Amino acid sequence: MKYYFSIEHSEYSAEKDIAKENSGAELRFFHVSFMNLIKGIPYLLEAWKKLVQTHAVSCKLILVGQIDASLKNIINSSYADVPNVEFAGYVSDLPAAYQQADVFISPSVADAGPATILEAMSAGMPVIASHNCGFASLISNGKEGFTYDYNDVDRLAEIMRWCIENPVELKRMGEQARTRVSQFSIDKYTDEVVSLLKGNA
After folding, report:
1. Phi-psi sector, 136: left (phi>0), alpha (psi -120 to 50), beta
2. Which residues contact 117 (CB under 8 A, 6 or more apart)?
3. What pLDDT was estimated at residue 113?
């Protein structure tokens, strides 16, 4: 296997317990990006709106990062009143923010990465990613998280609902996500590059 990308795991891999003792505990869904239309945020918010009709008390969506003007207009006109959504803006200590969340969502319409998927997995979070995220290939459904079609808001809402109702399974998935991404370490990446330079790859 070739390691063409890497992550510094020590920054994100502090131990955490994402399992909740009961399904009534608030589950925190997390997204980080420079938010624009390509990141799929309107689809995420539409799915969230469906979800909170039945689970508003037991979940929270935290969106971290700047928001571009066109997306901000859409949010203000269509999603301003959707409950349990926090727009956190810029966060200086991102690893610490990951440790406060439970499930990472990457709903991009098109994205070669994003590296935030690797960071979230390293932090021990299950990841819900659209098939259009490049790193979605690291996720096996039901093992490290879930993948779905970026515009299937019903399926995304269904996956988030499952997460709320299966907290013990989320802990297992988070552990498997951390194990899966651990193979993409800086050391392994360096070894691969050296091997390529020597002509041994």
Report:
1. alpha
2. 104, 106, 127, 129, 133, 135, 136, 138, 139
3. 83
pLDDT of 16 over the 80 cut: no
Which position has the higher pLDDT, 23 or 152?
Answer: 152
Collapsing DSSP states into helix, strand and coil, what is residue 191? helix
For the record, the structure tokens of 82 come out as: 């959707």
Q: What is the DSSP letter of 111?
A: B
CA distance 44 to 176: 24
**How is the beta sheet containing 127-130 ordered, strand by strand?**
85-89, 59-64, 27-32, 103-106, 127-130, 145-148
Q: What is the chain's mean pLDDT, rounded?
A: 86
Which tens digits make up the pLDDT trace of 134-184? Answer: 899 999 999 999 999 999 999 999 999 999 999 999 999 999 999 998 877
Best CATH choice for the domain 25-183 from the list 3.40.50.620, 1.10.10.10, 1.10.600.10, 3.40.50.2000? 3.40.50.2000
**pTM for the complete prediction?**
0.85
pLDDT of residue 118: 92
> What 3-state class would DSSP assign to 201?
coil
Q: What is the DSSP string of 50-106?
A: HHHHHHGGGEEEEEES-B-HHHHHHIIIIITT-SSEEEEE--S-HHHHHHT-SEEEE
Please report, for the chain, the start and end positions of each structural domain, with discontinuous segments joined by +. Answer: 25-183
